[in-house]
Design goal:
This protein is of the alpha/beta class. The protein is built from nine helices and ten strands. The structure holds phosphoenolpyruvate (PEP) and manganese (II) ion.
């Protein structure tokens, strides 16, 4: 594998985000699959803040399989996300799906997410890189670890090494879960690259009952952070209803995650 920019273990690497540092401090990203209204995203921001999340997520441009499904609120939603995050002093991550939107998205977002479906959209990777925002790069559902790192190298080569990798499951034959969460990729990636590695148990499993066990497992595998979908009324969500956590469940799980991180970090020699 010849990706010198993203596979440089000699680099001491930390990404400053709101007083914390990705790669050194464990970071918890929480928020809805989609921004649906001002009231909904404000509630999400409150829940995320009160449960101790570090970053607020919310999709405003949704890459949906069906063109008839909810596509997101676009820039109107982005303004709502920005307002809600400001209220609770949370940094924002949101997905960019189009090169033409990068500049405007970057005005509002601390982190730009490149989704699984766009991991190999090299024009988008390059354009997003130029914004100089931190890039949260999701693993494509059919991507090998080498292809994943190749995509990250595109971003780095375009002049932006502020990259977080995010494992979100790969396609599999089984229909019990939405994808197959490849947790082995976490220690494998961490042996190859100095970049922080996060895990998204929500899109990996598609099931809210699996968020807790997979989050705790991800922590013990060495994940530097988690991205979890949270919604004030998960069953009424306009996208990904089955996998989003409600307030009570998220509070409980986020406490367990923090306890698990302390246990992991204390048991490191
Ligand atoms: C998301 O995080 O909103 C999303 C669509 O995830 P993925 O690209 O991993 O499917
Ligand atoms: Mn989603």
């Amino acid at each position: 594998m010849n990706y010198p920019l993203v596979c440089d273990k000699s680099k001491a690497f930390h990404l400053e985000i709101n007083g914390k540092s990705a790669g050194r401090d464990f970071l918890l990203i929480a928020g809805p699959c989609s921004v649906e209204s001002e009231a909904q995203i404000t509630e999400c921001a409150r829940i995320a803040h009160e449960a101790g999340a570090d970053i607020l997520r919310g999709g405003v441009f949704k890459p949906r399989e069906s063109p008839y499904s909810f596509q997101g609120l676009g820039f109107e939603g982005l303004k709502m996300l920005h307002g809600a995050a400001k209220m609770y002093q949370l940094p924002i991550v949101s997905e960019v799906v189009d090169t033409r939107d990068v500049e405007k998205m970057a005005q509002y977002c601390d982190i730009l997410q490149i989704g699984a479906r766009n991991m190999q959209n090299y024009a988008l990777l390059t354009e997003a890189a130029k914004s100089q925002r931190i890039i949260l790069l999701k693993r494509g559902m059919n991507a090998t670890i080498e292809e994943f790192l190749g995509a990250a190298e595109y971003i780095a080569l375009a002049g932006n090494e502020k990259i977080i990798l995010c494992e979100r499951g790969i396609a599999c034959r089984d229909s019990q879960t939405r994808n197959c969460l490849d947790l082995a990729s976490v220690p494998v990636l961490k042996s190859l690259t100095h970049l922080p590695v996060f895990v998204d148990p929500s899109h990996a499993t598609g099931r809210r009952d699996l968020i807790e066990p997979m989050s705790l497992a991800a922590v013990m595998c060495g994940a530097d952070g988690l991205e979890i979908e949270v919604h004030p009324e998960p069953d009424k969500a306009l996208s990904d209803a089955a996998q989003q956590l409600g307030e009570e469940a998220f509070r409980r799980i986020s406490k367990k995650i923090r306890a698990c991180v302390s246990f992991r970090d204390q048991s490191r020699i």
